[in-house]
Amino acid sequence: MHPGEAVFVAQDLTKHYEMGEVTIEALRGVDLELRTGELVVLLGPSGCGKSTLLNILGGLDTASGGSLRYRGQDLTRAGERMLTRYRRNDVGFVFQFYNMIPSLTARENVAIVTEIAPDPLSPEEALSLVGLADRMDHFPSQLSGGQQQRVAIARAIAKRPSVLLCDEPTGALDSATSVSVLESLETLNRELGTTTALITHNQCIGGMADRVLHMSDGRIVNVTANPSRAAPRDLHW
Amino acid sequence: MSPPTPPAPPRAIFIGENMRALNRKLFRDLSHSKGQSFAIATVMAAGVMTLVVFVTALDALRFTQERFYDDHEFAHLFADLTRAPKQLESRIRALPGVRGVEIRVRAPVRVEVEGFPDPVRGEILSIPPGHPPEINRLYLRRGMLPEGSETAIAVNEVFAAAHGLQIGDTLRMVIRGQRVRLRVSAIVLSPEFVYQLAPGSLIPDYERYGVFWMSERVLSRAFAMEGAFNNVVLTLDGTVPEADVKAELDRLLARYGGLGAAGRDEQVSHRFLEEELSQIEAMTTVLPAVFLGTAAFLLHVLMGRMVRTQREQIALLKAFGYSNRAIAAHYASFSGLVVSIGVIAGVVLGARVAEGLARMYLTYFRFPDLDFRLRSGVLLLSAAVAGGAALVGAFSAVRQAASLPPAEAMRPAPPPTFRKTLLERSPLWGHFAQTSRIMFRNLSRHPLKAVFSVTAIACGCALLVVGSYQFGAVDHMLDIQYRVLMPMDAHLMFTDPVHERALGELRHPTGVRYLEGYRSVPVRVHQGFRSVQTSILGMEADSALRPLVTESGRRVPLPRDGLLMTDFLAEDLGLKAGDTVALEILEGRRRRVYAPLAGVVSEPMGVNLYMERRALNRLLREGPALSGVWMLNDAEQQEQLFQELAEVPALAGMSDMRQAERNVRAHIEGTTLGVMGVVLLLSFSISFAVVYNNARIALAERERELATLRVLGFSRGEVAWVLVAEVALLTTLAIPLGWLLGTGLARLLSKSMSMDLYRVPFHITPWTYSFSAAAILGASLISLLLMSRRVWRLDMVSALKSAE
């Protein structure tokens, strides 16, 4: 077990959506604890609720029941204003489709976050950390998918977030590019100590985590702790 | 034996039955973009409506005018003279090119209407003995023409209506100092007085000015014109140029005090009517062009976006076997549907409003009846013009949809390419927040769209500027005319010039506080080949009741010798201070005299010459004579005053200047409200539609980007600002452009409304600018409020799920 203090504590977390006349139970009671500096991989088939869990952890969505505390703060009761502040100051997001602002250059895509964060890295520092110092003035349309994803990672960590939440960050990338993206995430987790949760349906990525949470049908069904983390380039694709 | 081959299945033709699903998609798409479609249809409807309204109203008025003129033998030439024997008629008739002649007696009168205390002026025209007039024939609305009767009179309809006069009612009139009682025997209309205006007025006052007809025998006797005439009207047969007939007529009438004949183009009623018709004519192109152009642009933007977002659907349909033509037809019918809604709404509204507008014109211009027809040609024309605009707007998007190769369309569209803008070279760029950079780069990615948007909003703004300018300028003109140049309360006119001693007697009636006499004499100013008929006003050197001012408003005292002249006339004739002016006095012995031009004065109505009164008396070689009196009096005792003045036989007429001013202003206010309401609505719709479409499309195209900003920790307000800032920038650019455009149009309008009758000054107040800006901002604000609902409901989770 990772020795750090608890960043997230979730108890019996549930989430359901009303889709017309059908109710979809996305989370059916999740208990979870994430600790400082930990790198956790969430594994599971599509529709198992992992994205829903990540969205609730990141303050994009709120739970229907149960409790979720972030560093002692109750996120299940947080209002819109508080969630916005939480996203702005504490959480970094990385998505499958990069979510670049197409009209801003790499540097500006990072700057859009550093301009509103309290104690950010400079955009240049953040981009250097992901190895894109020489691409800073390129627009998204001038960057490859892997490069765009690394800009997204730089954008996510530039605010020095406590947690980094990645939803299928390599889902749209080939294996070689995926390795470089995962290496960036691993380095940042190790060097900055950012608690990182990573969603994937790719089993082998679990090897680089401290813990792997297996999800199925809205629940965490199995937790495995790796005795040692594998380097991304040593993972078997 | 092989089995018989089954008949080949019919080839699918993508119409009717087979298109059901596609048609359903059409209606769903329409309902999905109902806000934008509605906005486009509204602007289209406004364009079609203005086109239908103005073309139809113009058509109706022209047709009505032509028919009235033709059926009632509207004269081609009009001439006033002092007095000529009736025998002259045959010589006039013998002039080459003349078809018909009618000699008349024309007399100014004072009218007393029972129960109406204000002074009323008018003119009476004679009806020839034994038959109704053959030129400028009267349209008999009710009653019988007073051909032989001693005491019967025909009354122009507007005057009768203003006073509720019926056949059999009596009027008291003072003709040449003699009081007569007359009975209304007919209520008539005349092509000569379609627009009935008192001399020197700008706006009709039907209560205080009337035109009447009575038997020539009676009028001649009352006006001491027996065996003679002082007015003649002619129709021409077109074989000789009008100018030649006019020259011959002038030569013939010269020794009888002819004042120079006037063609229709100088006839007041005809001129005002033509002026108005040409303004409507200008409207038939300007307004529809602005609205239909904007609608085409908006349709272009909407269709372009629809084809972009439906790439995959288009590919799928093509993969299923729908032909390029079927796809093109599908998107074309979408625009067709939007346009049809606009056209139908425009035609229906237009048809309703057109008759209303034409009838509104009939309150100024009196015809027996309005020949209002909604011609199918006009409706077809409007639909065709609107359809043409739609074709221009939708063409590129439809072509794009048709030519999209299915395999390519299946792949998502490549990410939008952005370039650095020119603005980024400026040192300021570093200070812009990223959200502002997003805005600038988005605008500069589609510069043409931004330019069109700004131009369309600016047109809306310009329309408001011109609309409110008109009324502000007319108001300003009235201020100058009534408050500065004519501060008198009442104006009295003598039948014939009187000795200035009369002033002493006029001091006595109740409530008179101050008097100033003036002398007025008709003259013809000759300059080179040109000549203009006007009059010289002789008055006190520093008249308090008729001050003269320069264009900048500085007082100009009358010189001891020499003339002042309205600047418009001086410019028109190419005269400047120091030049000698050749004048033909059109009174008494028609001498030609010369006087130096001492300077020019500025005034918005009419053209005049001014002299010191005694200098004018000397020029006319007469004693200290007066033609009339200007007066200040107690407002509370005014009724009493006019009653007492009515007993003074030497007075040909009286005007209550304050009342005249109130009438004009009330009249203009009434028109202002209606017209401004329509202009406001039109401008509002155009600005609203453009802003709403821009914001709506920006939101649709960038939903994902905005959701990303929310995820990154931007608040709803901050995200909304990205959209608001864009609209705000467009609007901010559009408003000054609209002001500029509007000011230019106002200048043109002011130029086109400059003539000898009146000159609407170019006068735009800050109010006009702030009003137009406020209305545009209001329209933007409302469309943004509608938008903000969607920004508020922006769903981060679902916006992030899909690929670009």
Put the structure in a nutshell:
Chain A has 237 residues and is α/β, with parallel strands linked by helices. Chain A has helices spanning 50-57, 80-89, 106-114, 123-129, 145-157, 175-192, and strands at residues 6-19, 22-35, 39-43, 65-70, 73-74, 91-94, 163-167, 195-200, 211-216, 219-225. Helices cover 27% and strands 29% of the residues of chain A.
Characterization of this structure:
The complex is a heterodimer of chains A (237) and B (804). Chain A is an alpha/beta fold and 237 residues long. Chain A contains 6 helices and 10 strands; from the N terminus they run βββαββαβαααβαβββ. Chain A has one domain (37-60, 81-234): P-loop containing nucleotide triphosphate hydrolases (Rossmann fold, 3-Layer(aba) Sandwich). In chain A, a hairpin with a 2-residue loop joins β1 (6-19) and β2 (22-35). The model of chain A has no long low-confidence stretch (mean pLDDT 89). Chain B is elongated, with a radius of gyration of 35 Å. In chain B, α1 packs across α9 (324-364), α7 (268-309) packs parallel to α10 (376-403) and α13 (447-485) crosses α20. In chain B, strands 3-4-9-6-8-7 form a 6-stranded mixed β-barrel. A 6-stranded mixed beta barrel of chain B has the order 13-14-18-15-17-16. In chain B, strands 2-10-1-11 form a 4-stranded antiparallel sheet. The longest helix of chain B is centred in the C-terminal third of the chain and has 45 residues, at 657-701. Chain B folds into 4 domains: 20-74 and 261-413, no CATH class; 75-260, no CATH class; 446-486 and 658-804, no CATH class; 490-634, no CATH class. Chain B is α+β, with helices and mostly antiparallel strands. Classes of the chains: A alpha/beta (237), B alpha+beta (804). Chains A and B meet through α2 and α3 of A and α12, α19 and α22 of B.
